[in-house]
Amino acid sequence: MVEALATPAPAAAPRAANATLTDWVAVAAGSLGALLATLDISITNSALPQIQGQIGASGTEGTWISTGYLMSEIVMIPLAAWLTRVFGLRRFLMGTAIMFTVFSMYCGLSTSLMAMVVGRIGQGFAGGAMIPTAQTIIRTRLPAHQMSVGMAVFGLTVLLGPLMGPVVGGWLTENASWRWCFFVNVPVSVALVALLWSGLKPEKSDLEQFIKADWTGILGLALGLSTLTVVLEEGQRERWFDSTLIIGLSLLSALGFFLVALGQFTARKPIVRLGLLRNPRYASVIFIVSTVGAAIYGISYLLPQFLGNIAGYNAQQAGSIMLLSGLPAFLLMPVLPKLLQSADSRWLVSLGLVMFAASCFMDVNLTSDSVGHDFYASQLVRGFAQILAMMPLNSASMAAVATHEAGDAAGLYNMARNLGGSIGLALMGVLIDRRQSYHDAMIRESLTANSTLGQDHMAAQTQGFLAQTGDQALAQLKAIAQLSASVARQASVMTFNECFYLLGIALVVCIPLALLLQKPAASPVR
Given pLDDT bands bounded at 50, 70 and 90, which one contains residue 188? Predict the structure, then answer.
């Protein structure tokens, strides 16, 4: 009995050792690569008019400069985990970083639309590898008690990249040349290669995995995602299924996804682990991140359109308003890792979704007189919301799967975010086109020749133009043209309000799913 009482209690399991300097170098390399890839998604947006003018592309053709990048990036993202296993992480990432540099220089030197699109496709393919592998590095190189720091760094780069892209691109275009939107990648890529060389250990290639790969799924993935991206990007401009091009691409996309599904049953190791979606916690993450991705990309389209077309802002002025939502990231940076480590992911994501939806509802009462300062409050709230929603989602996606599934989970997670963004942009395009036409028609129907208010307005405008021109007929024509422009402007404002409202509703729908998320396991206390 005495011996039993004297037996010491088992010691608590020691906390895992802190990450080494080499581990943090690897994390820095992964985050820098992700920043480079996400920045280049939108860096050409501000420079498109200048690029199109110098390479001889029309406005419609110029959209392929962005579409080509997105199309190839979204194909590469889910392939990254497999290619990492085939070539080894360091060799694969260094190869894609060099490839990204070469294609960036090729874009900067391009003199034709075809050359530019080829360069952007190559850029997107290389950049798509850098986003999910950054998450994989963090998941495999950092101990549990430091995981939140790494995920915070990764999440900030992914959020800030698309926001900084138009601002950086606009500044370079106005102060140097649009070609520097691509040449600026060269020194950054050199630094990235150096970090990868020193931070990652060399690994042996496994060419057997290349030979025995799920080639049915790989073919289907490349075919399905690339054609789906083009359908979503070009569908509205081509009038959807009135176009034989869209019908053909849709059929190819359906065939591609059929091959991916076939690979789930025939391949020993499918290229996309759709079986991960049987995990309700991980499936909840995927659905939420798709919706949040649609909201982020949708607002990144709506806000510059409103500021440019309604408020009359140039690209650089609109970019400064967009960048306001990045300010909370810097304010929260000192406390974010601790917050992610100590707070429950479910409540953080729920709060983020509530704030994100609220920021959308704050923009549903816009008028034709609204300008940049009317978006200050909503942009700041949106910035806090994106941090609180996206950061825990990054961690929750990794916490929901085993360590050996991290690469596949990261690829599916990032693919879902980008695909959600493409779907969001497509839906915004359809909604704007349809609702603007509807509101324009309704306002015109309400304007009749018997309206006293309308008659007084037209008379006043005609007198004003008559004083300028001295020609009664010309003055009446100018008054009618101004009224028509005013109707179109009001219809556009009403449509923008509806778009923000629907994005808010979509985010509210996701709030119950946040309760299914799993908080990353806390590390044992020392």
Answer: confident
